[in-house]
Design the sequence.
C-alpha cells in the first residue's frame, strides 16, 4: 500500500485545521481535465464535512502532456507568496476551459495580486524547485496519474466521486 | 513470470521501422522494461505519460526505460507523437508477444502483454519485477526503490 512521503509540513498549502479528523491530499495538474472535474467535488466535500476535513494540494504537473500545467503551478505558487494560493488555485480550475499563457496575469489581477511582484516571483528558481519537490513527493508516494488522493496518509484507490461516497458512508 | 535473480532473456525488437533495440547492447546500464497491454489508453492516468515525466529520474540512476507492447511500430510511432513520448516503445509484434512470453507476462486469452515491470541491472540480471492488475497503473515508486537499491551496491 502506497503512503504519503514526505508527510504534511508547513511547506504545504493547507485548508482546514490540524484538529480535523480526515486529511485529504490531492496531487493535481491544473490542465488535467480529470482534476478539473474533481475540483467542484472537492469543494463539495469541504462544504459537506466542514471542520472534519483538512485539504492539502500538491503539484503533479504532467509537463510533456500539458504545456500549461507547469506554468499554471508556477502561477499558483507565485500567488501563494502573496498569501493567495487558494484564490489562484480556484481561479485556475474555474477557468481551465480557457487555460493559456496569457491567462495567469489576468487571473493575478482579478484576485488582486501585486502584478510586478507576481511577475518577479513567477521567474524565481525557488518556486520551480517547490513544484519539483511536490512532483518528487508524488513519485515517491506512488502517484500513478492525476488526480491522486491520499486519505490520512494512505493512497486512496479512486477518484473524487468515490472519495465523496466513501466519506458519506463512513459518516453514516 | 521471471523474478529477481533470473537472467533477463535477450531480445531484439523494433523501436522504429528501421531501428532495432538489442537488450545486450545495454550491458553496463540499468534497464527498465514496462510491459503494457496496448497504446491509446486514457491520457492523464496513462502509465507511459507518467514515465515520460520521469526520464530525468531514470537518468539519475543510469537507467534506460523501454515500453513494450504487441502494437506495431507504426502504431507506436503515432502514439509517441501524439503523447510526445521521449523514450522508445518496442513492438513485440512478430512473432506476436514472443518477448512478453519469454518474460512470462503474456496474456494468451486477450493476446496482449500483461502490465508488468522489470528492472534489469548492469550485468543483465533481473533485480526486481512486478505484475500489476491490468486495470491498475502501477506508478513508478517500485521502479525507483529498485534503482535506489542497485545504486547502493
Sequence:
Amino acid at each position: 500500500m502506497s503512503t504519503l512521503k514526505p508527510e504534511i509540513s508547513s511547506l504545504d498549502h493547507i485548508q482546514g485545521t490540524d484538529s480535523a479528523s480526515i486529511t485529504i491530499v490531492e496531487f493535481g495538474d491544473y490542465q488535467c481535465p480529470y482534476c478539473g472535474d474533481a475540483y467542484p467535488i472537492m469543494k463539495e466535500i469541504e462544504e459537506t464535512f466542514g471542520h472534519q476535513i483538512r485539504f492539502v494540494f500538491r503539484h503533479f504537473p504532467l509537463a510533456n502532456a500539458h504545456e500549461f500545467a507547469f506554468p499554471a503551478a508556477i502561477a499558483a505558487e507565485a500567488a501563494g507568496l502573496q498569501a493567495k494560493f487558494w484564490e489562484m488555485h480556484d481561479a485556475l480550475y474555474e477557468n481551465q476551459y480557457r487555460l493559456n499563457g496569457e491567462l495567469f496575469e489576468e487571473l493575478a489581477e482579478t484576485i488582486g495580486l501585486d502584478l510586478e511582484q507576481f511577475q518577479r516571483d513567477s521567474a524565481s528558481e525557488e518556486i520551480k524547485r517547490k513544484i519539483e519537490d511536490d512532483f518528487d513527493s508524488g513519485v515517491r508516494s506512488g502517484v500513478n496519474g492525476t488526480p491522486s488522493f491520499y486519505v490520512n496518509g494512505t493512497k486512496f484507490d479512486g477518484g473524487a466521486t468515490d472519495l465523496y461516497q466513501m466519506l458519506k458512508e463512513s459518516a453514516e | 513470470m521471471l523474478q529477481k535473480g533470473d537472467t533477463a532473456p535477450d531480445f531484439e525488437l523494433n523501436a522504429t521501422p528501421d531501428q532495432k533495440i538489442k537488450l545486450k547492447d545495454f550491458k553496463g546500464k540499468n534497464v527498465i522494461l514496462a510491459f503494457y497491454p496496448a497504446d491509446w489508453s486514457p491520457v492523464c492516468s496513462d502509465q507511459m505519460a507518467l514515465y515520460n515525466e520521469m526520464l530525468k529520474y531514470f537518468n539519475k540512476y543510469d537507467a534506460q526505460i523501454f515500453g513494450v507492447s504487441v502494437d506495431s511500430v507504426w502504431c507506436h510511432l503515432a502514439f509517441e507523437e501524439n503523447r510526445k513520448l521521449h523514450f522508445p516503445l518496442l513492438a513485440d509484434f512478430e512473432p506476436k508477444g514472443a518477448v512478453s512470453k519469454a518474460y512470462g507476462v503474456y496474456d494468451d486469452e486477450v493476446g496482449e502483454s500483461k502490465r508488468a515491470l522489470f528492472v534489469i541491472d548492469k550485468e543483465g540480471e533481473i533485480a526486481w519485477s512486478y505484475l500489476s492488475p491490468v486495470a491498475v497503473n502501477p506508478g513508478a515508486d517500485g521502479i525507483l526503490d529498485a534503482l535506489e537499491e542497485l545504486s547502493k551496491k
